Model the fold of this input.
Amino acid sequence: MLTFRTLAVMAGFSVTGVLFAGANGCSSTPSSGFGDGQNQNGDGGPQNCGAFGDCKQENADAHQCVNLECAVHQCNGVSTKVTGKIFDPAGKVPLYNVVVYIPNSPPKEVTSGATCDKCGSTALNPVPKAVLTNEKGEFTIDGAPDGEQIPLVFQVGKWRRQMVVKVDPCRENRFDDPKVMHLPRSKAEGDMPQMAITTGGCDPFACLFSRLGIDNSEFTNPTGNGRVHVYKGTGGGDVQGGGAPNPQTALWNDTSSLKKYDIVLLSCECDEHNETKSAAQKQAMRDYLNLGGRVFATHYHYTWFKNGPADVAGLVNWGGGGSFATTFDIDQTFPKGKAMATWLQNIGATATLGQIALTETASDVGTVKPGAQRWISSGTGTGSESVKYFTFNAPVAAKVDDQCGRGVMSDIHVSGGLSATTIPTTCGTTDLSPQERALEFLFFDLSSCVQDDKIPPIVPK
Done:
């Protein structure tokens, strides 16, 4: 048996433990108070299958309900709805493309390390179905089960939070308090991916994740139990408590070291520093991506791709047109790009749909080739295009359905202007800039299951 963890208390619903019981939990009847006095059978009589019982019931019309399916009731007019918003860990901005569902059985355990998480293969067993948040972070589950303790789960990749809510029948039940409806800030609040981040001398990229709301206790050296392991890259800072090792001997030295992590985040080191990134280590990074790893590289860490194995080196035309633009275009020719543009405008990161201001940009990426997806660029169609953010799925040469990993390349200093000698204690608490918000969108997209970017996000079953 599995219990949902106690997480928080919020006006309008209780967040306590709920038990998926054994067969002897099948003696209860559905909650009263539904609009037309009928249960799911439509005959007005009780169902002998409890909302949380691990049981089945054969109805007169030969329809069989299982567990929470038996707590879904017919209503006259308004159906039972669970609606709300999901926010980032800081509770500051709503998030796009988060999976929200009511599970009909205990959710599977989240495991750490590189895994092949493809959107079409994810199984959740929801009642009645899983939904995704829109560009405003909103979700609607229509035809939800009702009761005093209904489990609710929201998840993006290996970020997952579980709680129990009170759902009244035949009405809208809304949950949108950012103090509760946010992704986990710590292990105590839910599941988080295991991440590795390297510091660097030219971009305090690591600080962004503290400012995103991740609790300070989660930043540790690799021997600690935090969800963010800090490695001291060339010119970079240490972690609170000290002991951050150098990544060339402890992180990217081989694939087995990398694959312990779900996500690897690489802060700019002011130069390529290929003396710390051998051909064998570049191969290991590529192999990690192929296994299902996720990599977010900033500025000079383009060397993993440009100077790496041929398949990733051939994703773009390296060396841009020397763009000096301050306003850049968001590519809206594919579904997630269009969603990003709308989301950035919704949260106030840009006043003009499809454009965003960036600072401390570089010009190392010209145009993308097949296999890579452009997100933000300048000079499109002029012959001097300069791409600032692009992504790709891996293995690069594999069919779309066989791709498991994902990479993001940011040709800017993401958190330029800030400095940090110790992560996260000297990071500060300033709000995220527009370009950091763009990165936030790409970071949670990187965290999510892998799919073809040419189609809208796939809803797990």
